[in-house]
Amino acid sequence: MGTCLLLPAHTALLDALDRHARRREEGIATLSALVGSPARALALFTGWAHRRGVSVAAPEADEPRAMVRAWAAALARERELFADAEAFVALHASPGSPRPLFFRQKTAHERALFVDALSPAQTVKATWELSLQLLASQEIPAAGMLPDAVEAAIAREPFSALRAVLGWVPAGETPALRIRVGLSELRRLRAAAAICAAAPSLTVVCILTPEAFAACQDRGESHVLAMLREGWQDVPEEAAPGTASEAIGPALARFQQEGTPAPLVAHYVEAARALTAAGPEAGDRSRSKAEQFLYELLQHRPATRGCFTLNGLVEPGTGGRSLEIDLLCRELRVAVEIDGYFHFRGAEDFRRDRRKDLALQRLGYWVVRFLAEDVVARLEDILETIDTLMEARRRESSGQEMPHGHR
After folding, report:
1. Phi and psi (nearest 5°) for 335?
2. Which residues contact 29 (CB under 8 A, 6 or more apart)?
3. Domain for residue 317, yes or no?
4. What pLDDT is stored for residue 279 in this prediction?
5. Name one Pfam family in it (predicted).
6. Alpha-carbon torsion, ordered 287, 292, 296, 301, to 10 deg
7. Are 252 and 358 within one domain?
8. Percentage of the chain exceeding pLDDT 90
9. Is the peptide bond prior to 236 cis by the omega test (within 30 degrees of 0)?
10. What are the pLDDT digits (tens) for 334-357?
């Protein structure tokens, strides 16, 4: 009975994403905006992308050039762009151009001479020019790697390069671009809207917390806000997995779509298995697996890379024993603790943790505690919290006002 009650809300959101896809097929720039819990939005969007057979690029950057590069790198991991460029030139070369158009078997000098002899029929100029640049490259790019010619084009003019690359690939066969927008990351929203407008056929999805969505509306009318409202969809609260065991499948699908490095995925699987096997009384080993995975993930994300130390030590300043912190950001004075079940078994265990928190607070640290199980089951909520704390600390140190006047 409960499952039946959940279906309409989920179905409505998935149907909305389908409608957005049809608009893009018609050349209408559409920015999908999923507003709600990041973990729940990701679970639903991952399911939709999996159903349509598309991968996902999820850059952490906040400017268009880096976002386009991340998307192109995701495309290169699943397609051979050199072959796509070769096929495009073969299809669009004028009848008087030399044949056959086989570039892979030629030397760099022969490819350059061959390219000089080609002339286009009626076609997209930007795609034609990028195709020739790629085919005339000194080195044929390795499988899975973003070609230097494409990377250089993105560095020069990202929107033109994006449109050029899209000319190689059939509609509906490119990765979706998924961008997470927190309260302090509204630049990402502007960049996403600009990409959407430059390439209307590209699937661009923003995941926003309700606070970030409200902050966007507080900034007044704009083209970005109009696009945001047009693609706005509320995320049903009951969509997210609630336990570690329920979270594993959707998370692995998302990691695969995003091209997450294999060692990082392996750490996630180890943590998930340890927590699932241990159940609600997960022990120290399970908690350590969760710590290790979260640390590796923070190192992988550009926004948090190099910020945290695993099992870092803080001197209490009173001559007592050093305080060991699971994940320590010394620069911003943020202490992240991962708690297992044993942290709540007895009164003395609880008191010891509270004394530790108080000692850290006296030293100017902000302390945040997460359940080890939630590192697997509610990962996006944890990342959102860490990002928010770090941004608040940066604002505090620079004397900037926090949103709504709070510091």
Report:
1. -115, 120
2. 196, 197, 200, 227
3. yes
4. 55
5. DUF559
6. 20
7. yes
8. 37
9. no
10. 999 998 765 555 677 778 888 899
